[in-house]
Specification:
- With about 575 residues, the protein is of the alpha/beta class.
- It is built from 16 helices and 28 strands.
Length: about 575
């Protein structure tokens, strides 16, 4: 583990020094796997031009400027241009799903309101789409529409806001996380410290992660800028369409580091053929970070086995834990060590919240130890520290914590307490490492016992006719029931046959019962893409239940509804 870095510089310092190394910069890969290269010095010059244009428009230090761009050079021109002008960029996601424009515009309008943006910068075609979300007084401008102006770069102080990053919004609407220059620089330095260059190895990265998400922007771009290093990027929609592009790009540019959520590794298992891997060499991929969502032990094992013939090593797989409110990383597994998976007695976890090792218990992946400068506490509902091996709320303290939720002192006070941040996650310590047991608000409660929804959802991943990683488990108390019921909502594949659809109810019930011992009370089969997700693709369990109870989920006809157990 690297030592806690001393932060003496920040984003604008790194940008001012950019271009020291000819191989440092950003490479963008398109659908045809063609590359476009921009060195860091050229990116700085483009940003200075944007800075002058923003200042000519009257943008002043502290103003918030929303950015709505796909992955490409224009995003970085706008991002760094706004920061050079002393403004606070607010990266927002561009529309990705056809047919959901109204939903997208509603969510974007809420985020613009929450962020207090004075201006929206967007790709030309998106300016037309955003017309319904942007107030006339706010205005939407494309970079090409900025007036000419002389850049007068502002020297930001460490306490000034560097970025407004919206939280994932898995349990509630996304909150605007206010991150200072000090916090962002501290996180970037922490991450860069894990991968120092050596005389024999120049570190480089590949990422398809969204640039409005902390793992993509803070985790990949800022450390590359700090080290004047090369980084290869392509759009998330390209990864979803062609997962092999990720592994092919890592191989082609000999990347040493590349992160992704668990679902990405799962998608590679189901969507990449041997033919697409022809000529691929993954032996240089030293760190495959896996975080941002619940991590499946089965997926880790399967990925390592599936891609071993192309040089992937198990010790490269690195489970991690972080969140927007910490500017990203909180814990890392030990680099270069095979990941740890431990089985814990399922009954004691559910009934007493105690983690007792058991040969036949529930598998949980370790997400490692705190990164340099961070500390952990596991506390009960009374905010008292719990002993090792007892499940409680995960509290963290470190140099890159947010200032708070923007203009929301009540939400900030509920989350930040005397320098500690309540993550809202449940977890416990075992052998000095953190194991996560789920989100506090997502826990499935049945007859007084807590169950992890992730374990229930993973149980149906291999059921024929279902989309892997597209299941939601929730519990609630209906008015006509004597106790809580377990509901499971699953998305069918577009290719599911009538026979597979007919067999889904029994197959899902048997899979859940066999894996967890729990009986599904209500099962609903949904159309592909019907489950609500965050902008970064995480499933929203609370929103799923709300939509279901309101009759607003897109169920397949005939709907497969089962009433059993408590409702029998």
């Amino acid at each position: 583990m690297p030592e806690t870095p001393e932060v003496t510089e920040g984003i604008l310092d790194w940008l001012g020094q950019a271009g020291r190394r000819p191989d440092g910069g950003l490479r963008f890969i398109d659908r045809a796997e063609r590359a476009t290269w921009f060195g860091w010095a050229e990116i700085r010059e483009r940003a200075l031009t944007a800075c002058g244009g923003l200042q000519a428009l009257g943008i002043e230090p502290g103003d918030r400027v929303a950015l709505v761009f796909p992955t490409g050079i224009d995003f970085f021109t706008a991002l760094f241009g706004a920061q050079l002008a002393g403004a606070v960029p607010v990266p927002l996601y561009p529309p990705a799903r056809l047919g959901r424009t109204e939903e997208y515009l509603r969510r974007t309008a809420r985020m613009l309101e929450r962020s207090g943006a004075r201006l929206v910068l967007a790709e030309s075609r998106l300016c037309r789409t955003l017309g319904g979300a942007v107030e006339p007084a706010l205005g939407c401008r494309a970079l090409a529409d900025l007036p000419p102006g002389t850049a007068r770069p502002i020297q930001a102080s460490p306490a000034d806001l560097a970025l407004i990053q919206f939280s994932s919004g898995t349990t509630v609407d996304p909150k605007p996380v206010a991150l200072s220059h000090r916090a962002v620089a501290a996180q970037a330095e922490i991450l860069a410290g894990f991968w120092p260059d050596t005389p024999d190895l120049r570190q480089s990265g590949v990422s398809w992660l969204p640039l409005y998400h902390d793992m993509g922007l803070i985790g990949c771009v800022f450390p590359a800028l700090a080290r004047d290093a090369p980084l290869t990027l392509f759009a998330p929609e390209l990864f979803v369409a062609r997962p092999a592009l990720w592994l092919r790009t890592i191989s082609r540019y000999r990347a040493t580091v590349s992160p992704a959520p668990n679902f990405a590794y799962s998608l590679c298992l189901s969507r990449i053929s041997d033919a697409e891997m022809e000529g691929v060499d993954l032996s240089g991929w030293q760190t495959a970070l896996n975080g941002a969502e619940s991590i499946s032990p089965a997926v880790l094992r399967a990925f390592c086995e599936r891609f071993a013939p192309w040089g992937f090593r198990p010790e490269a797989m690195t489970p991690v834990y972080g969140l927007s409110e910490a500017a990203l990383a909180v814990t890392f597994s030990t680099l270069g060590r095979p990941y740890h998976v431990t089985r814990f007695d399922r009954e004691e976890l559910a009934r007493e919240g105690r983690a007792r090792v058991s040969a036949e218990g529930r598998e949980i992946v370790s997400v490692g130890r705190p990164v340099p400068g961070f500390r952990l506490r596991i506390v009960d509902s009374g905010e008292r520290d719990l002993p090792k091996g007892v499940v409680g709320r995960v509290w963290i303290q470190g140099p890159s914590l947010m200032d708070g939720y923007l203009d929301d002192p009540e939400a900030t006070e509920r989350t930040l307490r005397n320098g500690w941040l309540d993550t809202g996650d449940l977890g416990f310590l075992h052998d000095g490492e953190l194991y996560l047991a789920g989100r506090a608000k997502d826990a499935v409660i049945l007859r007084g016992r807590n169950h992890a929804p992730e374990e229930i959802e993973r149980a149906v991943d291999e059921v024929p006719g279902l989309r892997p990683g597209s299941a939601v488990a929730v519990s609630w108390l209906p008015e006509d029931a004597p106790g809580e019921v377990l509901g499971l909502f699953v998305e069918a594949t577009r290719e599911a046959t009538p026979e597979e659809l007919a067999a889904l109810p029994d197959a899902c019930r048997e899979a859940v019962l066999g894996a967890t011992g729990l009986a599904v009370d209500r099962l609903e089969i949904l159309a592909p893409g019907a489950l609500p997700r965050t902008s970064s693709g995480k499933l929203r369990r609370g929103e799923t239940l709300r939509l279901y109870l309101a009759g607003e989920l897109a169920l397949l006809e005939p709907a497969a509804s089962l009433l059993a157990g408590a409702l029998a």
